[in-house]
Every structure is written in C-alpha cells, then in structure tokens.
Write a structure and sequence with these properties.
Length: 87
C-alpha cells in the first residue's frame, strides 16, 4: 500500500466538502493530519487547477473569504453564493 502525501490527503479532504458548505484552511489541515499546516493548504489551493477539487470552499479562519486562483475573491464569493454557502 502506497502512503499518501500530505498534499494528496488535503486534496481528498477538499473534494469531500459538500456544496453549500465551507471549511477553513486550518480545518482542512487538521483533517489531513497536520493542524499546523494551514499555510501549506493555502499554497496547495492557490496552485490547484483540478476542477474535481472545489478549492473555492476553503476559507480563512477569521471568516474572510480569501483569494481564489480562478477569478479572484469576487469569483469565489459568487460561487459560494450560488451553492448556498453565503447569502
């Protein structure tokens, strides 16, 4: 059995975030096995262009939306509103 890298674990966690829900970078890091790696999660999301990984559903711990590599913050907000995660 091949052991998954931390990045693979992160991508798996993010793929499981349902429509209408969000997780913080810290929550994703914790579920992937390293609570202190929220910056790494942010870097993975910043460089993610795989459409099966809904990186727009990952937000900052302070409640701010954060950036989005496929259109910026406004595109991220629009997607989250469309999915019902934001009003």
């Amino acid at each position: 059995m091949v052991k998954k890298t931390f990045k693979e674990k992160v991508l798996d966690v993010v793929r499981k975030i349902p429509k209408g829900k969000v997780m913080t970078y810290k929550e994703v890091a914790k579920r992937a096995g390293n609570v202190k790696a929220s910056r790494a999660v942010g870097n993975f999301m910043k460089s993610n262009y795989d459409k099966t990984v809904p990186c727009h559903r990952v937000i900052r711990s302070d409640g701010k939306i954060g950036d989005y590599n496929r259109g910026g913050q406004f595109a991220k907000i629009a997607l989250l509103k469309k999915e019902g995660a934001l009003k």
